């Protein structure tokens, strides 16, 4: 399985609004978009969107570049005022998983 993360720094005082946007759910249907897993992490000054699935980099590229995904474009506009600078792509540099951990989920 491939995994990619998008990391963005939050402007001071925007954590509450970021939490609201996250609670609203993603602006796409992860189940119909060939993802195996999607997780969002939030701290006081950063948000991290993690996407997992086959050829996930292609999925993220398509998600960002497709001008006809209106809900995604609208979500970007809601996030834009909360972010400081540009989001960055992060790839796994280290991972460990207990044998059989996937079956235990």
Task: Give an account of the 3D structure.
The protein is α+β, with helices and mostly antiparallel strands and 105 residues long. The chain is 31% helix and 30% strand. It has four helices and four strands. The protein has helices at residues 15-23, 56-65, 70-79, 101-104, and strands spanning 2-10, 37-42, 46-53, 83-91. The protein has a four-stranded antiparallel beta sheet with strand order 2-3-1-4, covered by helices on one side. The longest helix has 10 residues, at 56-65. The mean pLDDT is 90.
Which features characterize this protein?
105 residues, four-stranded antiparallel beta sheet, 4 helices, 30% strand, globular
Name the overall outline.
Answer: globular
Helicity level, as a percent range? Answer: 25-40%
**Strands of the biggest beta sheet: in what spatial order?**
2-3-1-4
Portion of residues in beta strands equals 25-35%
Quick recap:
The chain is an alpha+beta fold and 105 residues long. The protein has helices at 15-23, 56-65, 70-79, 101-104; strands spanning 2-10, 37-42, 46-53, 83-91. It is built from four helices and four strands.
Write the SSE topology.
Blueprint: E1 2-10, H1 15-23, E2 37-42, E3 46-53, H2 56-65, H3 70-79, E4 83-91, H4 101-104
């Amino acid at each position: 399985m491939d995994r990619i993360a998008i990391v963005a720094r939050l402007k001071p005082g925007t954590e509450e609004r970021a939490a609201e946007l996250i609670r609203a759910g993603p602006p796409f249907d992860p189940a119909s978009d060939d993802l195996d897993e999607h997780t969002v992490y939030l701290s006081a000054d950063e948000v991290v969107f993690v996407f997992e699935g086959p050829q996930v980099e292609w999925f993220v590229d398509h998600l960002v570049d497709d001008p006809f995904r209106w809900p995604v474009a609208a979500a970007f506009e809601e996030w834009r005022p909360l972010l400081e600078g540009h989001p960055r792509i992060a790839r796994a540099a280290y991972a460990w998983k207990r044998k059989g951990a996937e079956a235990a989920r």
